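Hi R.,

Here's the chain you asked about this morning:
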Amino acid sequence: MARAYSDALRVKVLTAYAADEGTLKDLAARFEVSYGWVAKIHVAELRTGSRSRPRQRSWGRQRRIDAGWCEAL
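And the predicted structure, written out as tokens:
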């Protein structure tokens, strides 16, 4: 599985776009990443207002009982 890009790269790209240093396509070429990734992080920043990477979701099975029941058991 491919590794995620660093948070520093994410911030550099978004900061460069905010400083109007080029279009998303120009910045993708400049930082040697895909246009799709740059567009995705830009939309995520617009939606959440944060430049940090979102927390990864757990795809595993969810617990049927909560922490209180675990302590009682």
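Residues 46 and 60 are 29 Å apart (CA to CA).

Let me know if you need anything else.
M.
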